[in-house]
Amino acid sequence: MAVFNSLHKTSTRFFVPTGRNSGKWGNVNRFSTAAAVEELIIPQVPITYTKHLINGQFVDADAASGKTFPTYDPRTGEVIARVAEGDAEDINRAVSAARKAFDEGPWPKMTAYERCQIILRFADLTWNNGKPYEQWATSELPTFVRLFRYYAADKIHGLTVPADGNYHVETLHEPIGVAGQIIPWNFPLLMFAWKVGPALACGNTVILKTAEQTPLTALYVAKAGLPPGVLNVVSGYGPTAGAALASHMDVDKLAFTGSTETGKVVLELAARSNLKPVILNLEGNLLSLGQCCCAGSRTFVHERIYDEFLEKAKARALKRVVGDPFIKGVEQGPQVCFASTLRQNIIDCVLSYHFCSFYSYYKATLECGGDRIGSKGFFVQPTVFSNVQRVGTVWINCFDVFDAAIPFGGYKMSGISREKGIYSLNNYLQVKAVVSPVKNPAWL
């Protein structure tokens, strides 16, 4: 994962993402990597799960069409495994299984406590987007466990409502039904928890469409042992599997994390089908090679220390340890593979497109870095821009503060609704008012 950072001096900003060849930006400090991309560690992780999980079973065939697609090791650009490529027929099968599990199965009829005992199995479980192993082991994995333990605690209850007249009024919070969920590639483990955890805790059944760049994580953790049809995982591409899920008439709720432009398409498909409600968590820095929609992309610095801070930030970027994410001490692994085919020139295309767009859109000045590292894999240099003319999310005197209980989401075109915390449970519940007459109530 690349890390974003930046600063601001009155009208001047400063940005640290990852890089693109700097030829068109004049004289810049050249990058000398602090750790070359050396001999790679081969993790002893057998890749067992590459097929769709439907109705509690990994299906025998690769997909209804028989197609598969490659998933890559971003350190080398080489294929790790071939994964079943789902399309509309696979989505239909998964939705049918989820519908039957919701309408006829025990899951929504269980007490919240009974469901929570099963959900805790996810917290007891626990490779391929390139982020440093230390970051994953010390941050993301504990957060994954924390999220499922948070949702596994029974937090679902209704209200008793005062009303005019001799009536007893209460509200019931009920599961919505079948939830379709589409997750991105940048945090495959956490996005699984953000989406699947609250939906299951509320008694819904789920069809999860994974990102084509990182399908293996969800297939591994989905084997927690839920009743058949409660959790279904389909791998595939957005225009086929994703579109089929968003437009399916038997899906009652939809959640999507990704770009704003794709979010608009998802929202339209949901509206044109059965007007299903949609949760959208959109963009931010997700598309600018920072690989994180909430990356801390700018630091505001007083003008008196701006020049000094800029020089120190550039020096720190040049010392940033880039290499195999499985090696201790590595701060930055490779970028995720941004396409599933034509990998020969993937990184060049990505760097060219995104850095040229960044330069032209933000009118930024490249200070250092701006190139790929080596000829294999998707490694790029830590890069510093200054004079960036826009700013987004702000942390004040802190950075990267998250918790299972803190709601997350954006305003305006950054999305709809909130994820994490009690608000994420509300996304997957519908409210029923129950009114009954009371003769001679004690409170009147």
UniProtKB/TrEMBL annotation:
Record protein name field: aldehyde dehydrogenase (NAD(+))
Catalytic activity: an aldehyde + NAD(+) + H2O = a carboxylate + NADH + 2 H(+)
Compartments where located: Mitochondrion matrix
Keyword Transcription appears in the UniProt entry: no
Family according to the record: Belongs to the aldehyde dehydrogenase family.
Gene Ontology terms, MF aspect: aldehyde dehydrogenase (NAD+) activity
Domain of life: Eukaryota
InterPro entries linked: Ald_DH/histidinol_DH (IPR016161), Ald_DH_C (IPR016163), Ald_DH_N (IPR016162), Aldehyde_DH_dom (IPR015590)
GO CC field: mitochondrial matrix
SUPFAM superfamilies linked to this entry: ALDH-like
Keywords: NAD, Oxidoreductase
EC number of the protein: 1.2.1.3
Claim: NAD is one of the keywords in the record: yes
Domain Aldehyde dehydrogenase: start-end pairs: 64-285, 287-389, 390-434
